[in-house]
Design brief:
The complex is a heterodimer of chains A (347) and B (345). With 347 residues, chain A is α/β, with parallel strands linked by helices. Chain A is 28% helix and 21% strand. Chain A has helices spanning 58-65, 88-95, 115-125, 134-144, 161-173, 191-208, 219-225, 243-248, 253-261, 302-306, and strands spanning 8-21, 27-42, 47-51, 73-78, 81-82, 98-101, 179-183, 211-216, 228-233, 236-242, 322-323. Among the domains of chain B are: 105-174, no CATH class; 251-341, no CATH class. The chains are: A alpha/beta (347), B alpha/beta (345). At the A-B interface, α5, α6, α7 and α9 of A face α7, α8, α9, α10 and α11 of B.
Chain lengths: 347, 345
């Protein structure tokens, strides 16, 4: 990343959902700490992957960036402009530059509208009249996402899951956004279709120079799509690094455990490193003190329970590789079977 | 298996399952055969609508008898399940054969404690007392790795996390030490770290009891981890089968190859696009003629005379290994090598 203002700058981002309880007058009795202090940047045209298990706050983060949710604390800046608590009017021009692609291609398209109407919706709302008219633009978009422009007047139910997701992509592209937040865009699709949509998103990213925040739980898909990857756990970033560093030299025990748990479709003669975490992710209502991963971590000590480990460049990391751990894993000197590929020399 | 005189534990022969719907007849399963021995795990891979779940519901006799037409043969340990009466099936289900479903929350009753639901199956099949059933439930919960099982046995499903519910369902399925366990996407809804725990658990339990397992999934990675043998389904038919090593190392059907190349891996190249299978899975209401994969197949034109579109390729199985494709073995070696070359540097 350059030292110019990043496209998106998130600092200390927090979202606590209140829990109401009590009778007869309900009051706030606690909070789900869905997102609890996130710092990251996304550069122009860059793709940042957010990975983590369910309940880690990755989707909430996406909704906070797009301001579909109001942050509890922290700051979201878009092109240097603070939009954390911006009002409707102030947000309007920015909303057209930040678009979202949703997970469920069945729930995110209005079944009573034609494809043409769905895709031109954002232009209508923003009063944009492209040269040649909206319909021409929609047909262009359909072509870009690999659908037949003749399908302009069809309804969503006439399309398969993969095609619907393409419609969602076309809609997101209709306002020529600078940043797209894609929340699990392929996880609802069949395996043979996932690759089609991943390729489409990659083509869109490269051809149009759009920055992406790519939210997914599938580590292999994220690795394929994102230049930088952040691993989240219970509302916090555990580790963030360039793709090669994160997958080739994971320093946080959680990252390592997560990677080792991914089943791969190969039959290796050399068994891979296997780390089996015990138990489940704790509740975000009452997260563990100190390091949130400590209850499942095999390295945890007294210090982990009392001190929150800062997200810093620990010794042995290359610049830009930040790890939040008191006892980071030793840097990969003898690469394991899958932790090998890291050809570039240290910057 | 054909030459051995010993009857396989589970044998499915030329199974056909057709549903009549308002729009016409859905050929969900169209001529499927496989055998399964005790202590082995058969992985069935396929996308949505490939017929993998229907096959297994049919084995358990859980299909809707009014709208379903079934042909073929399903023999479990010498007993033909298709001609068995509902009462006979009831005695087998949960006892000799049982099933783990994908959605654990939807498969557990929210009104009864986990312990009671586990114990119910046990009482029904063994006639045990309430006390015995409860003890058995505690033992099962302990075995599937639930902490403090004697306390958690009185919890309701909503008090369990996703992984624990899946464990509870496994405990319920295994409470009578079944000889056949059908697991339908049991880990799809789980996070990877929990998925790994559940798969380890199933492997351990299989070692302990010699259970035969049918593991249904769409994830080839899961197959690589847990299965002994693999059956790849497409459009209601088996397109390829063999041992895990045979199928994953040396796929013989273009669909299997396509599935493998379309998946990103944790150490493959990242700057080249993935190689997806074009198009989408077929509708079983009106499936393609000939080979059901031919409209999406990269190699259909290599077969002379357009046979892929007209003639159904037969699945010839030798020693448990076979694929249903018109390509000659020599053609496959040549074409598949080029194709796979794009994947592994």
């Amino acid at each position: 990343m350059s030292n110019a203002t990043p496209l998106l700058d998130v600092s200390g981002l927090t979202k606590h959902f209140p829990i109401k309880g009590g009778f007869p007058i309900p009051r706030t009795v606690g909070a789900v700490r869905a997102v609890d202090g996130l710092d990251f940047q996304v550069g122009e045209g860059e793709s940042l992957g957010l990975v983590g298990e369910s309940g880690c706050g990755k989707s909430t983060t996406g909704r906070l960036i797009t301001r579909l949710l109001e942050p509890t604390g922290g700051k979201v800046a878009y092109r240097g402009q603070d939009i954390t608590h911006a009002g409707r009017k102030q947000l309007a021009p920015i909303r057209s530059e930040i678009q979202m692609i949703f997970q469920d291609p069945y729930a995110s398209l209005n079944p009573r509208q034609t494809v043409g109407k769905i895709i031109s919706g954002p232009m209508e709302i923003n009063g944009i009249n492209p040269a040649g008219g909206r319909e021409k633009r929609v047909r262009e978009l359909l072509e870009i996402v690999g659908l037949n422009p003749e399908h302009y007047n069809r309804f969503p139910h006439e399309f398969s899951g993969g095609q619907r997701q393409r419609i969602g992509v076309a809609r997101a592209l209709s306002l020529e956004p600078k940043l797209i937040v894609a929340d699990e865009p392929v996880s609802a699709l069949d395996v043979s279709i996932q690759a089609q949509v991943v390729n489409l998103l990659q083509k869109v990213q490269q051809d149009l120079g759009i920055a992406f925040v790519f939210i997914a739980h599938d580590l292999a898909v994220v690795r394929h799509f994102s230049q930088r990857v952040a691993v989240m756990y219970l509302g916090k970033i555990m580790e963030i690094a360039d793709r090669d560093d994160l997958y080739g030299n994971p320093r946080h025990p959680y990252t390592r455990a997560l990677l080792s748990a991914v089943p791969e479709a190969t039959v290796d003669d050399t068994p891979r490193e296997r780390i089996r975490l015990v138990g489940d992710v704790p509740s975000p209502i009452n997260p563990p003190s100190g390091c949130r991963f400590r209850t499942r971590c095999w390295k945890a000590t007294e210090k982990c329970a009392t001190e929150v480990p800062p997200l810093v460049q620990v010794e042995g990391n290359r610049p830009g590789h930040l790890t939040a751990c008191h006892y980071p894993e030793t840097p990969e000197t003898v690469p394991g079977p899958r932790l090998a590929k890291n050809p570039e020399a240290a910057a | 298996m054909t030459s051995t005189d010993q009857q396989p534990f589970l044998s499915v022969k030329d199974l056909r399952v057709h549903f009549s719907t308002e729009d016409g007849i859905v050929k969900a399963v169209d001529g499927l055969s496989f055998d399964l021995a005790k202590g082995r795990t058969l992985g069935i891979v396929g996308e949505s609508g490939s017929g993998k779940s229907v096959t297994n519901l049919t084995i358990l006799g859980l299909h809707d008898r009014r709208s379903t037409a079934i042909e073929g043969e399903i023999v479990l340990d010498g007993k033909d399940l298709l001609t068995a009466s509902e009462r006979e099936l009831e005695r087998l289900r949960g006892n000799k054969m049982s099933m783990i479903f994908q959605d654990a929350l939807a498969s557990l009753s929210p009104y009864h404690t986990v312990g009671r639901q586990i114990g119910e199956t046990y009482r029904k099949h063994t006639g045990a007392s309430k006390k015995e059933a409860r003890d058995r439930a505690v033992e099962m919960l302990r075995r599937v790795g639930i902490p403090q099982p004697d306390v958690r046995v009185d919890d309701y499903p909503h008090q369990f996390s996703g992984g624990m519910r899946q464990r509870a369902m496994i405990a319920m399925a295994l409470v009578c030490d079944p000889e056949l366990l059908i697991a339908d996407e049991p880990t799809t809804a789980l996070d990877v770290t929990v998925q790994a725990q559940i798969m380890d658990l199933l492997k351990d339990l299989q070692q302990e009891f010699g259970t035969a397992i049918i593991f249904i999934t769409h994830d080839l990675g899961v197959i690589a981890d847990i299965a002994d043998d693999v059956l790849v389904m497409y459009g209601g038919r088996c397109v390829e089968r063999g041992t895990k090593e045979e199928v994953l190392r040396d796929p013989q059907h273009p669909y299997t190859l396509g599935l493998m190349s379309s998946m990103p891996s944790l150490d493959g190249p990242v700057d080249v696009p993935l190689s997806p299978i074009p198009g989408s899975p077929p509708s079983l209401l009106n499936p393609p003629s000939g080979c059901r994969f031919h409209p999406r197949c990269a190699f259909a034109e290599q077969v002379p005379g357009g046979r892929c579109a007209t003639e159904r390729p037969l699945l010839e199985v030798v020693d448990g290994r076979g694929s249903a494709c018109h390509l000659t073995p020599a053609q496959r070696r040549e074409l598949f090598a080029d194709y796979a070359g794009t994947r592994h540097n």
